[in-house]
Amino acid sequence: MTLWNQLLWGSIYLSACLILEISILVWCATVLSRLSQRFVKPHRPWQLGLMLLVAIFIILGSHTTQVWIWSAAFVLVGAISDWNTSVYFSLVTYTTLGYGDVVLGPALRIFAAFAAVTGLFGFGISTAFLVGAMGRLFSINGQHSGEET
Fold first, then answer.
1. Percentage of the chain modeled with pLDDT above 90
2. Helix, coil or strand: residue 1
3. How many CA atoms lie within 13 A of 106 on its CB side?
4. Rounded distance between C-alpha atoms, residue 60 and residue 55, angstroms
5. With contact defined as beta carbons under 8 Å apart, do 142 and 149 qualify?
6. pTM across the whole model
7. Residue 36: CB atoms within 10 Å
8. Which of 12, 40, 107, 110 is the most exposed place for a label (fewest CB within 10 A)?
9. CB 62 within 8 A of CB 22
């Protein structure tokens, strides 16, 4: 793959994953809002814990899906021939762990780096989402119980 092809296809996969991440987080916010409305305010600690657990599992599903998207990309471009190695390489790259036991040739290194950038963005966005969503729930909870925020 040429440099320009790596940049183009890496950008396309990165963009697709970020659109997916944002879409899932918007849906997660809707789920949390509906769940929050079902509970009596102020929320009990187990209710806050349940909402946090729901958010974490939704976000985990989003990250897992993105790893699979990158795995498919590596198989489709012929970078890695078997799915087991592809999923492993995608996960290690997406998390920026980078063991180095599976290395792509020079013609695909830049393309693979986009998987790491996708993980950086994904983890950053989902962390900000969790902090914001849980902060809002705890803030609302504090207002209902008469505490200052």
1. 74
2. coil
3. 0
4. 8
5. yes
6. 0.87
7. 18
8. 40
9. no
